[in-house]
Specification:
This protein is α/β, with parallel strands linked by helices. The chain contains 10 helices and 14 strands. It folds into 3 domains: 5-99 and 201-221, 3-Layer(aba) Sandwich (D-Maltodextrin-Binding Protein, domain 2), CATH 3.40.190; 106-187, D-Maltodextrin-Binding Protein, domain 2 (3-Layer(aba) Sandwich), CATH 3.40.190.10; 228-329, Double Stranded RNA Binding Domain (2-Layer Sandwich), CATH 3.30.160.40. The protein is globular and about 60 Å long.
């Protein structure tokens, strides 16, 4: 039997290469006969344009460029940080595989090993977007939080080489991919800092028509992670079509059921919605509807001074009675038999 060949396109930066390698290693563990290889591409994007954008591993221009290499037959697949995905996906492409989710939480990096409570007042802390800035500013108002555009690689340059910030907050899974766990001082539980939609998830994109790749990759595909991603992306898409929102969301699948918790702004007014796993998109969109109908959460968005364009009120009028909604959730957003739902998994 002929061994499947999985040809990945990747950027030359350390994070996307590490993420691509992590997925290939997982494939090789499960399918030792599979042939995985990577071609590194250099995207013709002016650095000054790229460094003005908010993203984690791949900016939108880079994702579009790599998608073009797949459509042109230069590569077959690409690995993308789910939090960097913009919907709809590039023409002709689809998510062929969602491997097991990694740690979805935020981590604080500090070269002295200090946790946030030990930092001096006025310390400069780098963050990757308005979501983490809003939540962290509410918890530590005596710190100075600075949004760092240009992705994780630029943020690491600013923190480690230039020393322009005293600490850095980024996804814990990113620290794992980069092998820099030694400077992770603490990991924030979701009861304190709610992560962004898709955080901790990698996806494999390929041609929607590539049935063979989809079949091969099914060996490392996680149905639960796919449902969590579907709910979180549906939530984000239903809020505002802008990646950098002051919104956090975290979905969790247990058997055939799922719960998603979301919050805006400072993260104090939390809402959770429970529904069926096979209705993940509806559950995520339902959470957005409830937040936009909830006065305090809606006010959080207005206080963040976002551009006009919030969904009209009649978009949120109907909500499926099959979903269970809880309002005003804060520290007890995941209470029940498993108060910290990701402790066992991660």
């Amino acid at each position: 039997m002929k061994s499947p060949v999985l040809h990945f396109a990747s950027l030359s930066a350390s994070l996307p290469r590490s993420q691509t390698q992590a997925v290939m290693d997982r494939i090789q563990d499960v399918l030792p006969r599979a042939v995985c290889r990577t071609d590194v591409f250099h995207v013709p994007v002016v650095d000054c344009d790229k460094h003005d954008l908010i993203y984690t591993a791949n900016c939108p221009h880079e994702i579009d460029f790599l998608a073009g290499t797949i459509r042109d037959g230069q590569a077959r697949l690409m690995v993308v940080e789910a939090s960097d995905l913009n919907l709809p996906l590039p023409d002709g492409l689809d998510i062929l595989c969602v491997p097991d989710r990694q740690t979805p939480f935020d981590a604080f990096l500090n070269r002295q090993g200090l946790i946030m409570d030990e930092m001096d007042p006025g310390s400069r802390i780098g963050v990757l977007g308005v979501r983490s800035k809003a939540q962290l500013s509410a918890l530590w108002p005596d710190m100075v939080f600075r949004i760092l555009p240009g992705g994780v690689d630029m943020a690491m340059e600013i923190h480690l080489r230039r020393s322009e910030v005293d600490g850095l907050v980024l996804p814990a899974a990113v620290a794992e991919h980069l092998g820099i766990q030694s400077i992770v001082a603490e990991i924030f539980s979701p009861e304190f800092v709610l992560p962004g939609p898709g955080q901790g998830i990698l996806v494999v994109l390929g041609l929607a028509s590539d049935a063979e790749a989809r079949r091969v990759l099914s060996a490392v595909h996680s149905v639960a992670s796919e449902a969590e991603l579907t709910a979180e992306l549906a939530f984000r898409a239903s809020m505002i079509q802008d990646r950098d929102l002051p919104v956090g969301a975290l979905a969790r699948v247990t058997g055939d059921q799922m719960v998603i918790v979301g919050a805006t702004g400072r993260g104090e007014n939390r809402i959770s919605v429970t529904g069926r796993r096979d209705e993940a998109a509806e559950v995520g969109a339902g959470l957005a509807s409830q937040i936009l109908c909830h006065g305090a959460s809606f006010a959080d968005l207005l206080e963040a001074e976002f551009p006009d364009g919030l969904p009209p009120s009649d978009d949120t009028a109907d909500f499926d009675d099959d979903f269970e909604v809880d309002f005003g959730k804060t520290d007890d957003a995941f209470t029940g038999e498993d108060p910290d739902p990701y402790d066992d998994a991660y």
